[in-house]
Amino acid sequence: MEELKRSVAREALKFIEDDMIVGLGTGSTTAYFIEYLGKLIMEEELEDVYGVPTSYQARLLALENGVPVVGLDEVDAIDIAVDGADEVDPYLNLIKGRGAALTMEKIIEYRAGTFLVLVDESKLVERLGQKVPVPIEVIPAAWRAIAEEIEVFNATAELRMASKKDGPVVTDNGNFILDARFHRIDDPLDLEIELNNIPGVVENGIFADIADIVLVGTREGVKRLER
Ligand SMILES: O=C(CO)[C@H](O)[C@H](O)COP(=O)(O)O
């Protein structure tokens, strides 16, 4: 599995050119990409490339590996964003947010000229929600109310608990995460919009109609899916 992640991360480097502003995603697959990107920059095979991190994890990795970072408010445009995903459906709709970085990821990836997604074949599903819940970032005071309100969508929601800290996961933005399991997601774009209409919801992990290209690491090599 790690080798599949490495192979898509290596393939993603082919999309990066001099003078690009690159959105840096979060997670284990993107971590390889940031490592390899840093190597090319340090070896001066790429020049004037800057990364816009989607999380503290991406920022730390970029700094560690020699990728210069800038904030979203310091750039005019993002040429390309590179990130992993937890599920990809046949229309390239995604579920993201296992790493709790979904809000900044969506802010950056929505604005990128190209949004390139890196996954291994285990992430491909027929329908979103088949394997993983939909993460929803919420304002802490509203978590219980939102968890109840989500039941009207035929879903159950659980507050995500931390593993190396007592109590709930707190996102980079100081919020909580609800993991929502839906009976069936028929229209990802509609659900994405509906969830964001609930007061107290900051953002949700459905990324409908945003991905441009998905690189899939398989045992037979890297496959390219495009919308
Ligand atoms: O959405 C994410 C973080 O919020 C990640 O991109 C997603 O969870 C995939 O991670 P990995 O590459 O480790 O499987």
From TrEMBL:
GO biological process: one example:
D-ribose metabolic process
Q: Which PANTHER family match?
A: RIBOSE-5-PHOSPHATE ISOMERASE
Q: Which InterPro entries match?
A: NagB/RpiA_transferase-like, Ribose5P_isomerase_typA_subgr, Ribose5P_isomerase_type_A
Quaternary structure note: Homodimer.
E.C. number(s) listed in UniProt: 5.3.1.6
Q: Which Gene3D superfamilies match?
A: 3.30.70.260, 3.40.50.1360
State which pathway it belongs to. Answer: Carbohydrate degradation; pentose phosphate pathway; D-ribose 5-phosphate from D-ribulose 5-phosphate (non-oxidative stage): step 1/1
Question: What family does the database annotate?
Answer: Belongs to the ribose 5-phosphate isomerase family.
State a GO cellular component annotated for this protein.
Answer: cytosol
Output this protein's name: Ribose-5-phosphate isomerase A
Q: Which reaction does it catalyse?
A: aldehydo-D-ribose 5-phosphate = D-ribulose 5-phosphate
Q: Which GO terms describe its molecular function?
A: ribose-5-phosphate isomerase activity
Its taxonomic placement starts with:
Archaea, Methanobacteriati, Methanobacteriota, Thermococci, Thermococcales
Q: Which residues participate in substrate binding? A: T26, G27, S28, T29, D83, G84, A85, D86, K96, G97, R98, G99, K123
UniProt lists the gene as: rpiA
HAMAP family, A to Z: Rib_5P_isom_A (MF_00170)
> Which residues constitute the catalytic centre?
E105 (proton acceptor)
Q: Which UniProt keywords apply?
A: Isomerase
What is the recorded function of this protein according to its Swiss-Prot or TrEMBL entry?
Catalyzes the reversible conversion of ribose-5-phosphate to ribulose 5-phosphate.
